[in-house]
## 1
Amino acid sequence: MTADPRAVALVTEAARAADRRKGLAIRAIDVSSRLPLADAFLLVTGNSERQVGAIVDEVEQAMAKVGQPLRRREGHEVGRWVLLDYDEAIIHIQHHEDRAFYGLDSLWKDCPAIVLPAFPGEDGDELARTA
């Protein structure tokens, strides 16, 4: 089983939005064979609570533009680990300390990666922000 194309499109759009706010270690994972709740996860790191919040806002705006309603948001008040549930795609935006501590990358290491395109930066150069 592989992730639904719609889930791949959603995590790609969310990754593009996260990249606009300088999100780091952007990684998409196909969890469709291991998790019945979603097809794809997107993991993004921010260096501060403020940056985490900015990434969350940008992702929510991007998803609204493509017509994908937010099902649930958790952790926004604290700004350390925010989970955005878009049904088939779940976005995890974490402070760098929380990402290292909770180890979602290790937890889902057996799941295949979803290849994300390189996104052009403000200066036109391609940014390599994937881990």
## 2
Amino acid sequence: MYIKMKKIFNVAILALVCGAMAVSCCNSGKKTLLTKGDSSKMDTLSYAMGANLGEFVRTRIADIPFNFEKMESGIEGGAFDKAKWSNEEAQEIFQTLIIPVNERFGQLMRQKQDTTVTAEPIQIFDTDGQRDSLSYAYGINIGADLRKGNFPIQLCWYMQGFQQTRNGEGLMTTEELQAYLQNYFMVVFPQQQKEASEAWLAKMESKSGVQKSDSGLLYKVVKEGDMSRSAIDDRDEVTVHYTGRDRMGEVFDSSLFENMPAERQEMLRQYQPDRFDEKGNIIENEPVTFPLNRVIKGWTEGMKLVGPGGKIILYIPAELAYGAHGNQAIAPNAALEFEVELIDVKPYVDPAAAEKTENAEATPAE
């Protein structure tokens, strides 16, 4: 979310692609917390997040002459999934149009920095249509991120924060805005996630068949499998099919095409077309293979509880998952659910011991 770039125009394009706030990092899919909101009572979080985007537009990419009416229309359409383009279509259009804009924006920045040269300012867009399309597509991407984000956003206040701040009329100073958002994302939001995750885990623990290990891992063995071949070493390699869900039951990752989020399905169709038949159906789901010491602690422990051919459901506390910081796809302090089918286990073999055995076998007996 915070990537340092050497050139200001590269920072600008990064923000266009990702949005000024990476709200999708806590994707909750269909169960959105986004609403149109109540314009009679200010919602500070919504206003601040809109203002954050407005501040970025005003201070960092003001030289890109967006059509803000189109952008705002795209934000609203993307937020409530009523835009004339799907989010995937908007991303494709955006990625096509941003290439020349990126180049010209960089040229314009260099031109403005070079005071020894007098020249006509570089035109960012070739046509009004190009400008309108990029603005609208950018808005759809922002709105879609808001829709997928696990934040209680009121769009009316988000839009007001965006509009007022980009015009230099925001209700919060830059310092107030930064302080508020830093406190929310570093303190308030993680605490909310922690409390919600703990309540969810307590509910899961009460379900029939769910057991709890000494580490706090909750699990339910659906099918034991061949325990004589189960993993015993953290360096053992396992091959699995899996589906990961957040506490609200929405899938954030899966090895099974039918369970994947729509964006990942579309990406797979685009970049791996050979995996699909003429009717567009996946030919075969490819399992995933990894050593147990390369994954989260809940997986390392959980995969030792079943054997090949087995199936297990893991309810993983944050401290055995991605912890207090989360990652780009997982919220801080988030408890997670994984449904895992263990296909095979490849025991770890110490290379030194294997080499010693091979050398011994190669030595002729006296």
## 3
Amino acid sequence: MIEAIERYIKKNGFNGFEPQAVLFDMDGVLYDSMPNHAEAWAECMSLNNLNMMKEEAYLYEGMRGVETIQLLAKKQLGIDFTEEEAAKIYKQKSELYAAAGRAKMIDGVYALQESIARRGWKIGVVTGSGQATLLNRILQDFKGLVSPEILVNANDVQRGKPAPDPYIKGMQKADVQPWQTIVVENAPLGVRAAVAAQCFTVAINTGPLPNAALEQEGADMVLPSMDAFNKLLARTFPNDGDALSC
């Protein structure tokens, strides 16, 4: 991890790396929810004369739902959906997702957040979702860990991932700078957004995409599990988060 941090500092021209906040994506990072999302997207798109294979849902993961629908409508039908038109379809998709039941928590993520909290670092969530039920579940499941004040959702930004805006907003809410921020992502578009915001970006590959899909978006590290990241943190920051400078 030290080598990755050194490359990150050099790449961005920073003087050091002093983590004070960790920003988590939600789907595929906090919850194993992407299979349900993929099913819901495929069904909803079919009902609205659009096409999205289940596998494609992972490529659009992280983008605001409304923006995903507008993009597909333009590409496949040559139609410019308004925000209101796309929101109506996204509501349908959200209802299909809700009917699929609750997704389980990603293995190791709760222990990882406990470890982060012991270091005194802030914990936030940056998601492209705007569903109130999902956002409320985060605050219930990670009570005392995720700060309610550092919860960025689709309604907080005009441009969602892969634009850097959501992570810039997350840093503003956490009152930190990029060299003080770690992002935990699992999706190519989310990685692209975090890298564009100059955050140290850790990709945990919890889905079916190859590691290369995350590496080519600029992830500083690609790891197989939350436990692997937790162990690296323990070795790299054994004294509750000492700053690194190179």
## 4
Amino acid sequence: MAKRRKRGEGSVHLRKDGRWEGRAVIGYDDKGLPVTKNVLAKTKSECASKLKALKDSIQAPAPDQPKPGILLSDWLDFWYQSYKKPNLRSNTQMSYERRIYQHIIPALGGTQLDKLTTSDIQQFYAKLKQGGRLIRAEIYGEGLSDQTVRGIHTTLHAALDKAVAEKLIFRNPTDGCRLPPARAREMQVLSPEEIQRLLIQAKEDGCFELLLLELSTGLRRGEICALQWDDLNFRTGELRVVRQVHRIQGELVVSPPKTKAGNRSVLLPVPVLNILKAYREAINSRWIFPSPLKEDSPRDPAAVRQRLQIILERSGCKKVRFHDLRHAFCTAALEHGMDVKTLSTIIGHVSSSTTLNVYAHITDEMRRKAAAKIDQGIGKAGPPQAETNVAPQKPAPSTFQAHKGKRRKAGTGCVTQINDHLWEGRYSPIWPDGKKHPRNIYAHSEAECEKLLAEMIHEMKAEIAAEKERQKAVAKAS
């Protein structure tokens, strides 16, 4: 474990350009906010020496008493920009900025740090639950989810903890707040027969290899979309997970896994490896699952999610998330005797305790069966009537026939069911500038969604025609 620097020694981190940067608080401005100064060096030890020399040269000590008059908005902005942002990934930066600049500062930013109370923050959380949603409130409701509120609390708590460390306030007022319960999302797992139907339908819809690999490895959606052929060793069956793909401000971005545990290797079963060998011959791309729309680009994780919902509906399976396929793999692995530590490594959990927390219901059943076997061995007890020593048999082959489906005509957009009460319609025409400019509409039923989509397509076609006429007039005038 890396050695932590003592409070007041400043911070040292490696920059993207390969140099080491040290930063320390050298004083406080008129508002009471810390003023920092940095040093640069080629090595960590040299940087630490320069930082110590900087600290030794500072004559003015940090204030012993909290300074009044500092606004929460000023402190949050300083804390985020100076302490957090330099070490965050781009998508994590977006989460922090949403919480700070769209929720916390508008509600509490005008309050002075030393005047901020637990009651103020508790009322703020209650208002977020009642009417804190800023967009799509007509679809998802006025209030924010428990998980979102807890995330906002985590950010505010960390910022105020740093204020306590800098002696700007005596105590952290978020410590006494009562938070919404941390409810785990209900896990949905397909039955063996449903998995058969899913894969049969996936063959018809061109998604068989992707879903088969997911059910065999439990990769995250962004990880499986980012796989390249160089990551797969056909001789040994080893599949390396070294990157993920996600969206940042509408653009697909490929980046390393978020944690060290995310970099891992998975051994594929021989039947899956043989299927991928045959599939490889039809793919002319470095990506195992390339985008069907853009050259030399991985498949969009959002498109994979939408495709899964279509396949589930056509195969008559219950609605599950893509992440639930990961649960299906983990459940099957544990039920067939894989130990938790090995499973934790395969699926990329930082700690085995995370795996235990998520799959406690399965491991509890495994412990119960183990105790019964010990009782049989020591106490000579007979096997429970409900249990037998017969190994579980494979389910009978499904007689399900793949649904061919109706292919939508070109120019009519697409309709996707998001959940039980929400449908999404999308139209993505090519505009006169040569680019696609998609638009979405939402409705509470498929019929309403089709109607609104048709109206939107009519309006967009009129706009495109008007834009073409405008460009012709400009061309003639010039």
